[in-house]
């Protein structure tokens, strides 16, 4: 073929045909390639060119795409799937906690608790007597033996002059040593702050334990993260994500300092996941829906880097709203339709009866929520609403029902995060109103925060409804996953396991054996769809990520075992061997060649 004829042929065939013939950069062969396409198809081979998937099919079909410079990866039957998309997490606090003194969410005896913290003190020789030691990821409800007390005296026994604060992983309490209590200005007659409690002993003296808003009395004394610490935190967060296989995420409650740190990493070419940020809308501090959304748009203008493209970038297109707190003891700040139960009997002979409280009034009134959602809709910002109790869920659905009746409200993609308890009458409304529940699957297991902190206070009927994953799925809801890291350790594979089994880890102890209630788990395919394509939908990225299909971005992971064929409990042990974002390998484990 002479040059003229070749050019003519190319011109006639068009760009698609040229593209199909150019060799791929990478070809994966001999795999169990789980695509998450409309049929959840499984294929054998996949090819990537310029960061995009150009072929999914059998080995033979990949051959014409394999040129001399194409890197060929033999998967040896291993599973390749879309990268994980975490639809709700807090990367900055997660990352900074990785750098703090951490108790790692472990169940500890008092002696172990003390020696772990002493080890942190001993290791940190540079800090002076006035510098706070911040200890994180304390599994407060898991202290051994059950019901053992921890007070300032527990921490005063440590060899240090420094103020010490130990923060519960749950975020609802903090323990101080006596030096810290003194610095926080807490005395015998100090009143409880609004929304918080200074725990006191029989004599009325503070024990060192601060609950909810009272924690601020100490937290406000901690210096904010420096620029360098913020950078270190986001760097640590991204490293943890790469290892887990997370290729996109939503920071569900961001701030300019966090976005500045991620923007710096982006500039350095070190942003290894597609980063989305939700800015808080809070009308408490005199803001109006208009002024709050205007502030969000200001941050969007500063940090949003435009539509999704091959290389990871930053997007600011979500608002975070809080409708309530948490339904579990001792907070009871979840907004409920029916009262929390209280024990009117004794510890030995309990008699659980409806108490006086259904939790707080929702943090947004019906009118304020409607006005805020409308303002967001006009600004093309998607609302991501924290709802834990069934009243918070219902009121949010009511406001979204109104929103859907307005022209701008039809295009919005609202997400309701957490949904720990939903009135069954509201299950079908998620599908009807096209609202995505963003669930943390790992909460659906017997654990101190369910068996211990929910069961009695909910009563048997409501307890049977908590963590309604399968019921929402069966009612047609598009379920997405969000880890809520660092409320729990970043362990997506454990969370997915719980989504399937509703069981705790095998070493959780016999009081936490069995499943949470009698609800079934979710089918494995639905669990994977929640953390891929459905989460992509909430980020408006489903045309480009979330499944492995030609034309989409090559965001994908190779697993060390097959999610579908291993025993369900083994899902928690899955290790990611390779993480690819936009065709670029950002993480590779030793076992992968
Ligand atoms: Zn959260």
Automatic annotation (TrEMBL):
* UniProt keyword Hydrolase, yes or no: yes
**Top-level division of the source organism's lineage:** Bacteria
Alphabetically ordered keywords of this record: Hydrolase, Signal
Instruction: Indicate the segments forming the Amidohydrolase domain, all copies.
Output: 71-587
Where does this protein come from, organism-wise? Duganella vulcania
Q: Pfam families, per this entry?
A: Amidohydro_3
> What protein does this entry describe?
Amidohydrolase family protein
Query: Which PANTHER family does the record associate with it?
Result: IMIDAZOLONEPROPIONASE, PROTEIN LONG AFTER FAR-RED 3
Secretion signal span: 1-19
InterPro entries the record matches: Amidohydro_3, Metal-dep_hydrolase_composite, Metal_Hydrolase, YtcJ-like
What GO MF terms are annotated? hydrolase activity, acting on carbon-nitrogen (but not peptide) bonds
